[in-house]
Model the fold of this input.
Amino acid sequence: MNRIILFLALVLSLSTKQNAYSQTSTDKKQQFVSIGDFPLENGQHIIDCKIGYRTYGRLNATRSNAILYPTAGGMTTYMMELFGSGTVVDTAKFYLIMIDALGNGVSSSPSNSISQPKTLFPQFNIRDMVNAEYKMLTEDLNIHHVAAVVGGSMGGLQAMQWAVSYPDFMDKVVAMEATPKLSSYDLLWMQAYIEAVKSDTAYRSGNYTVNPVTPLAIHLTQLLLTTPTTLNNSVPVENFSKWLTSLSKPNPFTVDCNNMIWQTNAVMMQDITTKAGGSLENTAKMIKAKMLIIANKQDHTINQTLSIKFAAMTNAELVVLDDDLGHLIFSQQSVVEATRKFLAQ
Done:
């Protein structure tokens, strides 16, 4: 448990001066596909759009055992591999494709674009992420159907959107700690997060040369990632000052501030009911895949009320936890077991 908390604290601390993906030159598992100038829903284009990905296991002769696993907010496929996110998928049976979502510093992002650097990078949404992933899979990897789409947090938002945007593309969907659309609570803290980053003088309106330390944003994420119980148990009062200082120290898991703002904006805009005129009921009728929805009642990052409600509308299998880990349940044994069982059915 402490390993998970430390990892996410490092990922969301936005504090290192290192490159967002410093292991690229020696990382043989990291692969890339160029999908050309990619059109976004807002009418803009990502010039020379590149998508990163990793694969595990073997694709069978009928090309029918692939499972897509897009990254969560601020995460890369390298981080997901390092901390065991893919363990929910049995790679002895399935061909796991982890995809770096737009804006994560590996795929095309404000931090790595040559033609559209920093604040010149166009704002994308979750549907754009899914459309880019679809283009990559069908046109470059020659995969036109997958066994499942699995994701947690922002990856779970993508998984739900996949079920609506391309209902015939997958047999199953697993969405962990996601939601059909955000609640007012979610929008409030995410807006506060963006304001905390932008108000820091080191942010320089997004035109910084060194990724800035943003203490208010760091502290806000720590308040919401888990629960009071977990934080109190993990950080004794006598160690609090030392722990708080450690959050702003350099670490190898940087998240570029602009990247995080762009992804947070994408999350805030997400609403899978767009094609159905805002109706959850009509959206549920569009979904053909079997669904597993995993929700923790103690999630303070993405409120799970609507996710639980949507499970009933879609006749999805539903696993509801009451876990002190809050948003960080993805590697919990109960989550791994429930997901593997669902995928094996």
Q: What stands out?
A: Residues 124 and 321 are 32 Å apart (CA to CA). The chain has one domain: 2-185+260-344. The longest strand covers residues 45-56.
